[in-house]
Amino acid sequence: MKTLIVYAHPEPLSLNHSLKDVAVTTLEAGRHEVQVTDLYASNWKPALDASDYGPAASSPLRVAADSGRAFDTGTLTSDVRTEQEKLLWADTIIFQFPLWWYSMPAILKGWVDRVFTYHFAYGVGEHSDTKYGERFGEGTLAGKRALLSVTVGGPEAHYSDRGINGPIDDLLFPIHHGILYYPGIDVLPPFVVHGSDRLTAEEYAVAAKNWERRLLELETTEPIAFRKQNFGDYEMPSLRLKDGLEQPGQSSFALHVRPPVTPDEGRRG
Q: Would you state the pLDDT for residue 223?
């Protein structure tokens, strides 16, 4: 297995750095190939601008069209092209980062903004009244798997169904579904370390062991069962979920996850 780790934390002595090292050591011990993009150490440029597209940039700047033209003509900056090549190389992508202000660090969002260009991560495939491009289950990165390894400062109860911060799955939905699943990546359930600012040595040892176990199960873990866009669940061209496909009481983000198949349904199929 080929794994790309995209790591976003400025402190080499941080918990995130330790978890990144655990991932590298565990995967390499299992004879996996590993590449690491350390965004802070490499002084990654987080802000997208016209310089990313070279001669393909227009005035005024049109991010989608210009990024697609730069991708097509090979005029994206070398740092962006390198990261796209890593993504194409990888079977699995691990994102290691702290949850800051309910989202990923700005430098990691900047990596997404610059690397996920038009004609690479989006804007591919047929666009018509019956198929709205290859996305949400299809696309350039289809067949790859991704896992978020996230550290959270608050306790687990704060991120539960009735917790003050909201369910962690809801907070991560824009990343899971909107960033990763959009270009076709299968998304694994996240690995979350709660109370990360107050971990004792014993608690860290438990977290590290749990992380090792998740890493060893990367190839067999079932991804989140997001619904595919072009396979019959959504009305075209409105892209609204068809009535009656949800479970009783299901709403909001959960609508876009297929309910589990019961044994009886499996036998009927």
A: 97
C-alpha span between 45 and 228 (Å, rounded): 33
Q: Left if phi > 0, otherwise alpha if psi is -120 to 50, otherwise beta: which for 123?
A: left
pTM for the model stands at: 0.93
- Three-state DSSP class for residue 35: strand
* Cα–Cα distance measured from residue 32 to residue 110, given in angstroms and rounded to the nearest whole number: 28
Low-confidence stretches of the chain (pLDDT < 70) are 262-269
Rounded Cα–Cα distance for residues 78 and 56 (Å)? 14
What is each CA distance from 10 to 39, 71, 83, 101, 163, in whole angstroms?
8, 30, 19, 16, 29
At 263 the pLDDT is: 54
> Over the stretch 85-138, which tens digit does the pLDDT of each residue have?
999 999 999 999 999 999 999 999 999 999 999 999 999 998 888 888 999 999
H helix or E strand, kind and range, residue 21 = helix 15-29
CA distances for 66 relative to 53, 83, 213, angstroms: 7, 18, 43
Q: Of all helices (H) and strands (E), which one includes residue 92? A: strand 92-98
**What letter would DSSP give residue 84?**
H
- Confidence at residue 268, expressed as pLDDT on a 0 to 100 scale: 45
Q: State how far the Cα of 64 lies from the Cα of 140, in Å rounded to an integer.
A: 16
Q: Are 233 and 226 in contact (CB under 8 A)?
A: no
Q: Is the peptide bond before 98 cis (omega within 30 degrees of 0)?
A: no
Residue type, 64: A
* CA nearest neighbour of 161 among 227, 254, 223: 254
